[in-house]
Write a structure and sequence with these properties.
36 strands; single chain; mainly beta; 4 helices; 664 residues; 22-stranded antiparallel barrel
Length: 664
């Protein structure tokens, strides 16, 4: 079955219909030989206004993602492009750590394997991905950017299914089996073989590099437990290793290991035809270890617990009142150590960190207007060192102008707490730091002028306050590509400010055979410290455009293309350079911070799919040709060894990603 409907805009029907009325989508294969009716039962997690959803079946066919639906997030308006095609989340002018990635509403410690190769979850474990670029519901907290929520399917399968997949990156296998009418088991496992393929090639070429190696696995039990609802229990784990050697027979210059495992359980049910509830609990262990130049080491680990309990009542009719009431807790035992013998730097700490929150949201439906005032109250503690509270009022409005037009407006405060390392006075932290705050504002419209065509536009303006600045040169484990910027060696403080403003346009047109989607973001993101002048944010991208097309052809063929255009990343120029005679090296002296910009980025991705249907199983082959024109984009600024001229790091060449998948 090839599906051609892509939910790249807010799912209007899901928000308007009552919670107990299912939504139905018609899907057909390329040759119109098979039709299937898909039923999606509305649940409380999908009653979040303003979100944009990505369907698993649809996005897996689009070019540039290698079949990974979470990578499709970077095609949405408001999401900037990350260097080298990595999956760092840069949403509406914020940094990588200001946005949250969740799995069914609970934090996910690692979303992608090294370098953004693929998501740490098999695609069969997910049903959709929801993206809220700003003004999120009070259901979401501890962030000043956007939200990406990976959502699993809670419908029990009616029969057994299995999948085997092979690509240039990995081998995968998954299966789901209904044990009884009320119980099903699902499992998946994947292992990369980049190291097995690339290792001998690198050795033959005399290169001492170890290719990334990763594996992950998930086991899931779904059960209908009578009047209590649906019980969903999942165990998942992931492990990534990468090393790079400078010369033969040497210790690795970079040695990185990231791993985690989690056990989580959810209970979803209905107390009445109008009230639904969800209870979720998760426990996990995360370990990250980095070695640089054989001596500098960074280690971070956490034993974490997350829990949420929520009640939801959706409004019905022209005059009605809905409500969302909930409580969530996140915390556990954290530890870290950073050592650098050359600089005599040894920083370590261990202790408990907890944040707990209660939230409430009322939705009054008055004819064509939905008005949703909300508030979230959070308390954060770091052992006996730090305690603080935050109140986050938010307000959203939706106006329905007939069946074709919708207007949206939202304003509210979002809060993010400083990192443990920034607060811990046993190291270099400052216990008096306040939480970072963002006041987010947006105004948008959606228009459906005719069947198959959807258009939307949004303008937004966000103000960031109390941003933590200082100690930029510290050793740490990056969850994104580190940038070389002028260091701020001062002690941590809340002297940072930010402002972000811009607009987003998107359009989608789809039929049974063709899908066309385009997204344009025009924005500006600036920062300043204290009374200094405003400068460009390190990840500022004024213009980002993504255009995609996918066309189903006879005999189960499908062709697709993606064009990506965007501004180059900003950087700080080197005004002067100083030579250290005794060490035969140079030290840069930077000029005005972040005042130059790399050349614009552009790329073309192509994809072709072919399917074969047999009596009891189906085979699919795909070729995802990324950067088909071999254009070597300047991804990250860098300098020659003596800092005499700019020598940017170029992007990857053409990558032909071939894959086979068998399902039965």
């Amino acid at each position: 079955m090839w599906v051609s409907l892509l939910l790249l805009g807010p799912a209007a029907a899901a928000e308007d219909n009552p919670a107990d009325e299912p939504q139905r989508l018609e899907a057909a294969n390329n040759d119109a030989e098979i039709t299937e009716e898909i039923t999606i039962q509305e649940s409380l997690r999908r009653a979040v206004p303003g979100e944009r959803r990505l369907s698993m079946d649809d996005a897996a066919m689009l070019p540039g993602t290698n079949g990974d639906v979470v990578k499709m997030v970077q095609n949405l308006p408001g999401v900037a492009r990350a260097p080298f095609g990595t999956t760092t989340l840069l949403i509406r002018g914020t940094g990588p750590r200001q946005s949250a990635t969740l799995l069914d509403g609970l934090p996910l410690p690692l979303v992608f394997h090294f370098g953004g190769l693929t998501t740490v979850l098999d695609s069969d474990m997910l049903q959709e991905v929801a993206v809220v670029p700003g003004n999120a519901s009070v259901r979401y907290g501890r962030l000043t950017g956007g939200v990406v929520d990976l959502r699993s399917d809670t419908q029990l399968p009616d029969k057994a299914h299995a999948k085997l997949g092979f690509s240039l990156l990995q081998a995968s296998a998954s299966a789901e089996v209904p044990v009884t009418d009320n119980l099903a088991i699902q499992a998946a496992v994947r292992r990369s073989w980049i190291d097995a393929v690339a290792g001998p090639v690198l050795e033959a070429a005399g290169q001492q590099a170890r290719a990334p190696r990763y594996y992950d696995g998930q086991v899931r039990i779904l059960s209908e437990v009578g009047a209590l609802g649906t019980l969903d229990v999942m165990a998942l784990g992931s492990n990534d290793t990468f090393a790079w050697f400078g010369t033969a027979d040497a210790e690795p210059l970079v040695d990185l290991n990231l791993r985690f495992w989690q056990v989580r359980a959810r209970l979803l049910g209905a107390a009445s035809p109008r009230w639904r509830h969800e209870t979720a609990v998760g426990f996990g262990i995360t370990d990250e270890h980095l070695v640089l130049n054989t001596i500098d080491q960074a280690t971070e680990s956490a034993h974490s617990l997350a829990a949420r309990h929520e009640w939801l009542r959706l409004p019905r009719g022209q005059l009605d009142l809905g409500a969302r009431l909930g409580v969530d807790v996140l915390g556990g035992q954290e530890s870290y150590r950073y050592t650098s013998p050359a600089t005599q730097w040894d920083e370590s700490s261990e202790g408990p960190r907890w944040t707990s929150a209660v939230y409430a949201e009322l939705t009054g439906r008055l004819g064509i207007l939905d008005l949703s005032p909300a508030v979230r109250a959070t308390r954060m503690t770091l052992g006996s060192i730090y305690t603080d509270e935050a109140l986050e009022p938010r307000l959203a409005a939706l106006v329905r102008l007939g069946d074709d037009w919708r207007l949206r407006a939202a304003t509210g405060r979002a809060t993010q707490w400083p990192e443990t390392r920034e607060l811990d006075t046993r190291a270099d932290g400052v216990a008096g730091l306040a939480p970072e705050r963002a006041w987010q504002n947006s105004l948008g419209a959606e228009w459906r002028p005719l069947g198959g065509l959807w258009m939307a536009g949004t303008v937004f303006a966000n103000r960031l306050n109390s941003l933590v600045v200082g100690r930029d040169g510290r050793l740490e484990i990056f969850d994104s590509l580190p940038l070389e910027v002028p260091e701020n060696t001062d002690a941590y403080s809340n002297k940072g400010e930010g402002r972000v403003y811009g607009g987003e346009l998107s359009a989608r047109w789809d039929t049974a055979e063709t899908l066309v989607f385009g997204a344009l973001t025009v924005s500006r993101s600036e920062r300043r410290t204290g009374d200094q002048d405003w400068v460009l944010f390190d990840y500022d991208q004024p213009i980002v455009f993504n255009g995609l097309i996918s066309r189903a052809l006879p005999r189960s063929w499908r062709l697709g293309a993606r064009v990506r255009l965007g501004s180059g990343n900003p950087y700080s120029p080197v005004a002067q350079r100083v030579q250290l005679i005794g060490e035969h090296s140079w030290v840069p002296v930077y000029g005005d911070r972040v005042q130059e910009r790399l050349p614009p980025f552009w790329s073309l991705d192509l994809r072709v799919d072919k399917g074969w249907t047999f009596d009891r199983w189906r085979l699919a082959a795909s070729l995802d040709l990324q950067n088909a024109t071999w254009h070597r984009n300047a991804e990250v600024h860098a300098w020659t060894w003596d800092y005499s001229r700019l020598s940017p790091v170029r992007g990857l060449p053409t990558l032909p990603m071939f894959g086979l998948e068998a399902r039965w």
